[in-house]
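Researcher: Please predict.
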Amino acid sequence: MDIAANPSRPPRDPYRHAAPQVFDYLRERIIGLEMPPGTLISRAELQKLFGFSSTPVRDALLRLQEESLVEIFPQHATVVSPIDLKLARQAQFLRRSIEQEAVRTLALMTERAVVVDRLETAIEVQQALLARADLEAFHAADRDFHRIFFEAAGVPDLWVMVRRHAGHIDRIRRLHLPMPGKAEQVIADHRAITRGIASGDPVIAQEALREHLSKSLAFSADLRARWPDYFRD
């Protein structure tokens, strides 16, 4: 990890423990591919960057290892792990299963118009970010759109669980996002899901969601051909 490329210290929250701050910083950079597979991570540089002791840095790296986002070789090195297609498929299965039940719940709500308004506002944000070609913020707004399903369905803790397993599939999506027409397709898919919920027909909503969540993994062979060093089976 090249500290010289990121000379400013990340914002520190005095009300949060140190380890989660290091974890969040590294996880976002790994998923955003600022730290691609194979990147060496220096504990000493992280301590210098944050001004923390070795313990929270170690704890953050252990959490990343639990999510299979880094590989720790004791007394040698810590390296950002390759994208694991098996783990990506499992994450997709988990997310698709839970989100289909969530959108079914939303489509059957008597007061679903409130949720539809939230979703439409989120889509407007995505459209504005796409117009500015801000793909990093667009990627975050994409996650925000899906988080609404969990919050509105009354199962926000399940979003936390899904996110914990999403590191590998999210990196595939991040690789896919800059390809021509992908971001526009994301918005079109989100509109279709929202229309399904608004219609009150859970089958329409679920079919739109299933189609949406299948696309990035369907392109994984093409992505692997472009970035062979990023992947492993």
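Model: The chain has a mean pLDDT of 93.
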